[in-house]
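Example for tutorial group B:
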């Protein structure tokens, strides 16, 4: 009883007990990608699985260099992509990376008419990342590289490739929230609010059926790529709320009033299901 009273006095007096972390001395552990995830001890992010770190360096963009072989890619031919990451402080190639989503580097590849989508992981070999691809048709492709240099912050950098030949006809997007079949599950979407406003938080709530056999894919319960129809905005996200059950929620802030295509991926019984939804985003400013 005396010990309980002593602890109560400490709490009421504002004096930290031996079990209470002292913010002036004890480090705060933060997820490098989801910075709202914080802890007073080491561990792993419950959202994306990344290792928590004690403090996060100031963000700075590294340089992502992309070279192609052959240099003038053609449709239906195998093209070799090489990614080199350059340190802006040391002006040298980065040779050490932290693992993110069970890999060292993720690449999203999207064509300008939004009819081709790939998420894959280039392989690390001789101080560069390498990837072979066959582009299905001519046109502009955008590649979003997701990587985490050691001692820095996670990077999301985009590069552009032009495959020789006439560009494809543009795809006219219209609102599409309809339930999608991805392979071995269905994906249903509910938006809150139903009409997203640029610059404000939007809850994208997904229900997957059947929900048995759901598995983490690349370290997360789901992956999302948000892309404007002009491919200027490209954002990689993970669920804000997910525990392996049928319901998952992504919290998204669309940067502009525009049309967006949103791809989501969920894995069930070893099958990666990829579906997309088309989202019109309005301008909340009455005087744009």
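The residue assignment follows.
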């Amino acid at each position: 009883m005396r010990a309980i009273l002593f602890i109560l006095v400490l709490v009421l007096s504002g004096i930290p007990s031996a079990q209470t972390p002292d913010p002036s001395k004890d480090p705060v552990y933060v997820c490098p990608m989801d910075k709202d995830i914080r802890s007073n001890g080491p561990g792993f992010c419950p959202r994306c699985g990344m290792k928590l770190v004690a403090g996060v360096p100031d963000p700075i963009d590294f340089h992502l260099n992309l070279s192609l072989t052959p240099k003038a890619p053609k449709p239906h031919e195998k093209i070799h992509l090489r990614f080199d990451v350059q340190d802006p402080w040391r002006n040298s190639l980065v040779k050490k990376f932290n693992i993110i989503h069970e890999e060292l580097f993720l690449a999203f590849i999207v064509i300008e008419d939004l009819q081709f989508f790939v998420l894959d992981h280039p392989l690390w070999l001789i101080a560069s990342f390498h990837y072979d691809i066959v582009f299905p048709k001519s046109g502009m492709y955008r590649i979003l590289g997701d990587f985490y240099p050691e001692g820095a912050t996670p990077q999301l950098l985009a590069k552009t490739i032009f495959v020789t030949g006439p560009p494809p006809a543009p795809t006219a997007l219209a609102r599409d929230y309809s339930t999608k079949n991805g392979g071995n599950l269905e994906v249903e979407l509910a938006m809150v609010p139903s009409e997203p406003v640029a610059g404000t938080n939007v809850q994208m709530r997904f229900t997957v059926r059947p929900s048995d056999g759901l598995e983490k894919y690349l370290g997360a319960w789901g992956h999302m790529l948000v892309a404007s129809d002009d491919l200027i905005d490209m954002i990689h996200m993970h669920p804000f709320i997910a525990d392996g059950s049928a319901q998952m929620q992504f919290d998204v802030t669309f940067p502009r009033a525009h049309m967006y295509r949103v791809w989501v991926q969920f894995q069930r019984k070893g099958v990666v299901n990829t579906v997309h939804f088309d989202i019109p985003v309005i301008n909340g400013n009455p005087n744009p």
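Helices lie at 2-13. Compare this with the pattern of hydrophobic and polar residues in the output above.
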